[in-house]
């Protein structure tokens, strides 16, 4: 299994990041082995009846990286390219992310290999309910708490809540986060990840001595994270000049009105043909001059081919693993790009998920202002810790963020010991 995981490009990238950081921390081989590999890798089949009467079997996955510090936390994605290796890598990154943010969670990730854009609401509900029922032995508010991710949303979480609660015989709101507010979801959860990306990007601009009102931004991806990152950046005074999604890319050096893009996407299903900007090749958009570049789509989009061409001052990694290890080396050698690494940059989602989980345990609701204020306080603290570690140790921001997270997990592993 180790060889199979390492052969997957995304897990291999996550493992190389871990190994590099473990070398810096001088982790002993026994602790390194225990921290690196996931605790559980779960694969299930999900047979459903399609609307046309055919029966189709999908494959679903859940990887629980570690439960040493608490229940695992992480999203569930529906996407045609979901694979076990990808899910394992994402669960590893989530583990370091939770530890970096000092949240009492381990890392988890789940996925179903399907194309939600080609499925009806009924078919999506059937996939969700069957996936949840297959996962019942492995999930729970103190074991594994899922959340929305690519291709899933609060409705998905509502269906999961219903399946688990029906099985338990009473409402169990803490089984997932990212639920609708009327099912004891949290105010501010929908905007949390994108809001956090924008907040940290503006702190990075301040470090680079660039005023927000003079800054420009390009956002790759206009899903939940990218759309709210773009919207919040614009509200902070940053001019958004480029946006892309699965349908295409748009660019206007004079600025794009993000609120109008929301309306256009709602009406047309994507940013393509938006009247307030010109069409541009999505790959070309990434290398246009800007102050903030926000990759908010899939993994491995900043590569050794385009890294030398980047013209941004801040690279805010809203997606998980958007920068390959080869591109990382190029960016470090360049030394002119301030990196906000993914496990810090997109930590707003899991942080507000933690707030939602706590509210569910307490049966108490916070206002959106309370949630976002608490979020910004925690993100600012983590940002400052990463900067302090990077400056003190003379390492990159990525190594600093990973080191803080990995060390926390490693210390707990050593303290708890190894069960014979």
From TrEMBL:
<dbReference type="InterPro" id="IPR033524">
    <property type="entry name" value="Glu/Leu/Phe/Val_DH_AS"/>
</dbReference>
<dbReference type="InterPro" id="IPR036291">
    <property type="entry name" value="NAD(P)-bd_dom_sf"/>
</dbReference>
<dbReference type="InterPro" id="IPR006097">
    <property type="entry name" value="Glu/Leu/Phe/Val/Trp_DH_dimer"/>
</dbReference>
<feature type="domain" description="Glutamate/phenylalanine/leucine/valine/L-tryptophan dehydrogenase C-terminal">
    <location>
        <begin position="186"/>
        <end position="417"/>
    </location>
</feature>
<keyword id="KW-0560">Oxidoreductase</keyword>
<dbReference type="InterPro" id="IPR014362">
    <property type="entry name" value="Glu_DH"/>
</dbReference>
<dbReference type="Pfam" id="PF00208">
    <property type="entry name" value="ELFV_dehydrog"/>
</dbReference>
<dbReference type="InterPro" id="IPR046346">
    <property type="entry name" value="Aminoacid_DH-like_N_sf"/>
</dbReference>
<dbReference type="InterPro" id="IPR006095">
    <property type="entry name" value="Glu/Leu/Phe/Val/Trp_DH"/>
</dbReference>
<dbReference type="InterPro" id="IPR006096">
    <property type="entry name" value="Glu/Leu/Phe/Val/Trp_DH_C"/>
</dbReference>
<comment type="similarity">
    <text>Belongs to the Glu/Leu/Phe/Val dehydrogenases family.</text>
</comment>
<protein>
    <recommendedName>
        <fullName>Glutamate dehydrogenase</fullName>
    </recommendedName>
</protein>
<dbReference type="InterPro" id="IPR033922">
    <property type="entry name" value="NAD_bind_Glu_DH"/>
</dbReference>
<dbReference type="Pfam" id="PF02812">
    <property type="entry name" value="ELFV_dehydrog_N"/>
</dbReference>
